[in-house]
Amino acid sequence: MQMSAFDKNKENPLQHVRIKLAEKSHIKIKDKNTCIDNCENKPCTYYCPGRVFSWSGEKQAIIVDYSRCIECGACPWGCPYDNIYWEFPPGGYGVHYEI
Amino acid sequence: MGHDRYDVIIVGSGPAGSTAAKICAENNLTVALIEKGEFPGSKNMFGGSIFRAALEEIVPDFLEKAPIERKVVREVLFFMEADSIVEMGFTSYKFAQPPYNTFTVIRSRFDRWLAGIAEKAGAHLMNSTLVEDLIYEKESPFSGRKVAGVILEDGRKIYSDVVILAEGAMADLTRKAGLRKKYSADLFTLYVKELIALPEEVINARFNLERDEGMNIGMVGYPTAGAIGKGGIWVNKDTISIIVGAYLNQLIKNGLNPYQLLCRLKEHPAIQRLIQGGKTVQYMSKIIPKGGYDNIAELYDDGIIVTGDAAMLVSGRHGTDAAMLSGKYAAETVIQAKAKGDFSKKTLSAYEGKINSSFFYKNLKINRRAADYYKKYPDADFLISKILNEITFEFFKEDNKTQEEKLQMMFEKLRHIQPLTKSVKDFYNAALNWRFY
Lengths: 99, 437
What we know:
The complex is a heterodimer of chains A (about 100) and B (about 425). Chain A contains three helices and six strands; from the N terminus they run E-E-H-H-E-E-H-E-E. Chain A is of the alpha+beta class and about 100 residues long. Chain B is an alpha/beta fold. Chain B folds into three domains: about 5-65 and about 105-185 and about 295-365, FAD/NAD(P)-binding domain (3-Layer(bba) Sandwich); about 185-290, D-Amino Acid Oxidase, Chain A, domain 2 (2-Layer Sandwich); about 375-435, no CATH class. Chain B is built from 16 helices and 17 strands. Chain B is globular. The two termini of chain B are about 45 Å apart. The chains are: A alpha+beta (about 100), B alpha/beta (about 425). Chains A and B meet through helix 3 and strand 6 of A and helix 4, strand 11, helix 7, helix 8 and strand 15 of B.
């Protein structure tokens, strides 16, 4: 199946999310080497519904863009190597649903 | 400005927390209700609908006050293929009359309303406040440690006789308290949702509804592309909730992105015409704790009680009502403990007794093994959907064949997909599993 949903020519779902961005990231990769040495498929780059994680071939690392996080809570449990640290953003920050 | 000591601190102002706060406050306990979002419900998501039976126990006159979108009169199940659907449904206009049955709601409105009731009863709601950790004290050299309050993210400490955790699926504090151990991708489903705005009269015409009648469509087969999960539509007043999701380990194994599944579902010819011309106003996503009976948290310890999603008290489609009822049981237990002046594990064990006699706990227990079949045959729903669509297609297709020839062709289709005995097993197990869907 094609992973086209977040392509530029498609609608970006994050435009429908209000996020009050905290100063510091609430998501971290615990050990960079684990991603390189052990993780072949890098599932965080596809199961995350906000596309927080992307693989940089140049930097040889998972890039974390915490400004895309909609706090679904999946990433720490989905990582096959328990290599993602995730906590809630500070009180009053992060995703905000209001209609 | 708040105090630094309360009878009870409740972490999380979702359905479980606000219910507990309301009941405790009504019984003259001092209550701190702590919410990390800007207001209760501002970070919460579900399908979804709430059920009358549970809500009525907590707010008897909710019908006049609650921010209800619509009253559900129709429940439909779609067995979907890429270009066809076999539908099974039930409509009751009894459900359009008082006392009604289930109601579609939007959580940023509903949770805020319920927390407001707790506030009116006297609970002190603290918004935009994240709890970092629990405070423990040792009551005597012979006793174990007892939870005695919480530490906020700014280091401030608030003390209480007892802490009720209603912190949701991530359950950080529940884990820190050592009450929930196993967390893995197979214990959670991951759902995404879009809220799509359409004029009320357009919605009514498209879904064959009148006034504030609502409906819910459950979808199996096509929406999850082979992973164990579901799609769904809930009809609100002037928006439609459309969701899709599956077990996290299945999404990962099949290389699926949930948003991509949602886009694909929205393009299905049957769904596309239901949402056509609508404007997406919200995108959201959440995990649901679906570990079942074997993964329910330890429900209490000295000075602490765990409720709702944090305790994994989700049984089939019963999550929000199970949460509210667990909040109620927690409050009742704490009120008794206050009267005794004893918040030890022994006294708080009354909470477990109440949970154990609840309908959702009993259902979780009965369905303990129901998920096993799906773990063994993850594509069972997908195959059922395929079989139903292909056979029904043959049934309705006009091709100048005799009845016998038609029957023969339908059997051929059935055998072609998989052995007959496996199909029978799939249907049997699906029926078992859907009992409490």
